[in-house]
Amino acid sequence: MKPSVLPVLPFVALLGILTACGPSSSASGTTSAAAGTTTQATASLPPAPAAPTPAVTASCPYLATDFVKDTNGQGVGRVKISTGGGQPHPSCFFYRPDGNMQVSVRVYVGQSAVAQAIVNQAAPVATSDPASDPEGWQGGLISGGYNGMNNPTGQATYAVYKGGDAVVVWVNQAQSIKARKIAEQAISSLGL
Q1: Is the pTM higher than 0.85?
Q2: pLDDT under 70 in the chain at which residues?
Q3: 3-state secondary structure 148-177
Q4: Domain range for residue 110?
Q5: What is the pLDDT of residue 122?
Q6: Residue 172 is part of a domain; what is its CATH number?
């Protein structure tokens, strides 16, 4: 008696259907999906360099402590900055009086593709809302959510680049407007 090929046919048909329903890839490396199309090929970006870390206690040279306190709505106990890394501007880290970090600001000056990679790492194009302030800058923002009782349950990130410059702000608050205002002030103070 010959073995039947009928039990294999449903598997082959299912495999064909799954293959036809998967994402399609174009020659440029972007992926098209039913929800929309990614406009920028993030696969072509270089890996983002490691994020700077707080190293020494010092004032942030481009953001006043009172501005951060007023904008984020929390007292500032101390400020630390990064050192080294070959960047002209340090990253700044603002802490609450209880020692927990409340704001971090990363500034990158260099190659456009690296600036884009840093922004995409902080606020991925595929999963964040678009950001376009100040004028001429672009990137993404991520807002924290609410638990249904108007209590914030997350943090916010605002990450933008223009040419070879990138600014990434993280706040321990759910409202991205706070991160955006801090990013705009840093960009203005630095003349970027």
Answers
A1: no
A2: 1-43, 145-153
A3: CCCCECCCEEEEEEECCEEEEEEECCCCHH
A4: 46-190
A5: 94
A6: 3.40.1000.10
